[in-house]
Amino acid sequence: MYNTHIWADENLHGVRPHNFQERFSINVWAGIVNGLLIGPYIMPDRLDGRTYLQFLNNELYDLLEDVPLEIRRNMWYLHDGAPCHYARIVREWLNEHFPRQWIGRNGPVAWPPRSPDLNPCDFYLWGHMKQIVYSTPINTVEELRGRVENAARIIRNDRETLLRVEENFQRRI
Fold it and tell me: What is the pTM of this model?
C-alpha cells in the first residue's frame, strides 16, 4: 500500500479515483477419481488443521458417494504441502483412514518438493476451471461461487477428458 499525498491550493478534500475490481477469493476443494470430478466443495475462508479435519470427517465421504466402494477402498488421497494439510491431527486422520495410501508432507509417500504441477488438479483441473470461471469479470463472491459450480458441471460432463487426465498423471509419475 502506498501513501497518497494531494497538494492543492483551493480544495482541501482531495479524491483519489480508483477503478479496480474488488478483490475477493474462495477456497475450493475438488478431486478426480476414476474419471469422475469430485466436488467442488467451498471451504471456509480461514483454513487451518481443525477446519480441514472437519471437512475430512464431515464432507469427504459424502462427496465420494458416487465412487464405487472397490475404488474407494484402493484409492490414494493426494494433497500438497499447504499448512492445513500438514497439521498433526490431519496426518493422524489420514493415517487411520488411508493407511499407507496418502501423499503429502510427512506422509507415507512424501509430497515432492518443488513439484506443484504433479497432481491432476494442478496440471489440468484448476487451470481449466479458471478459464471457465474468469471468462468475464466477476462482481461478487456469490457470483464467483456460482461460476465455480457451473464450471464443475461443464467439466464433469467431459468424463473422457478426466480419464485422459488421470492416464497422463500416471505416465508422469
Answer: 0.77
Domains of the chain: 27-172 (3.30.420.10)
| Cell digits of residue 139 | 462482481
One pLDDT digit (tens) per residue for the chain, 173 residues:
344 545 556 665 555 555 554 577 899 999 888 888 999 999 998 899 999 999 999 999 999 999 999 999 999 888 877 888 889 999 999 999 999 999 888 888 877 666 555 677 777 888 889 999 999 899 999 999 999 999 999 999 988 888 888 787 777 76
